[in-house]
Amino acid sequence: MKYTLTETRSLKWFSLFEMAMSCTLALIFLTTVAQANEPKTTPTFQKILFLGNSITLHGPSKKIGWDGNWGMAASSQKKDYVHIVTASLSKSSVVKPKILVKNIATFERQYATYNLKEHLQDAFTFHPDLVILTIGENVPQLKTAEEQAKFQSSVEQLLKQLQKDHHPTIIVRSSFWPNKLKDEALRQACQKAGGTFVDIRSLSKEEKNYARSEREFQHAGVAAHPGDQGMQAIADAILKAVQP
C-alpha cells in the first residue's frame, strides 16, 4: 500500500508521539519507583517541649540518694530519653533544636485543680513545634469513671492550650509503670488532639529496662525508674512515632 506525502508525514508524527508518550510513562514509572525506595527522612523541628515527671527531669536530692539533674535514673544526662531524642532529631536539622524540659508532676497529682496558665506560661509562650508528653506515673489511682474522665479532660485542656497559637506535632506516651485507666485516658486525650499515642507498656515486663538491673541504688523508688536501657527503649519508641 502506498501513502501520500501527507499521510507519510502523519505516520511519522504519530510514531514520534508514541515514542514520546512511552518515554514519559517510563520516566514517571522510574520516578515513582525511586521515590518509593527513598529512605524516609525525619521531620526537622526547631523547638521541642518535653513535659513529664521524674523520668523526664529530676534535680539532685540527697534524701533519696539521687545527685543527677536529668531524667531519673539514667547514668548521665546524655543517656536519658530527652537527650537521646534531642540528639537524634538534631541530626536531621541544620540547626540544633531548642528544647524546654519541664517536670509537671504537680499537674499529675493535682490535675483537677491545676492552673495551667499560672504554672505553664513559659511552656505556652515557648511555641514548640513538637510536644512530647510523658506523664501518668504520679497520677493518683483513678477509682471511678468520673475520676478517669476528669483526668482525661485535664490532659485535653493542656494539649488544647499548647495548640492555641500553633499546631505542633503531639506525641503522648503511656506510663512506664502501666495502668489501664490512666493510659486509656491519655490515649483518648491524645487522639482528640490529633496526636500520636506511643504505647510502651511492654517495657515494664522486662527487668533489664529498670535501673536496678544496672546498678545499686539507695532508694527503691529511684531503682524502679528506667535505667539506661529503659531510657533508650523509651526514646526509640518516641522517635519511631515521629517518623513520617
UniProtKB/TrEMBL annotation:
User: Which UniProt key words apply to this protein?
Assistant: Signal
Query: Entry's Gene3D superfamilies?
Result: SGNH hydrolase
- Which segments constitute the SGNH hydrolase-type esterase domain? 50-233
SUPFAM superfamilies documented for this protein:
SGNH hydrolase
Q: Which terms in the Gene Ontology molecular function aspect does this entry carry?
A: hydrolase activity, acting on ester bonds
- Does the keyword section mention Signal? yes
Domain of life of the organism encoding this protein: Bacteria
From which residue to which does the signal peptide run? Answer: 1-36
- List the protein's name: SGNH hydrolase-type esterase domain-containing protein
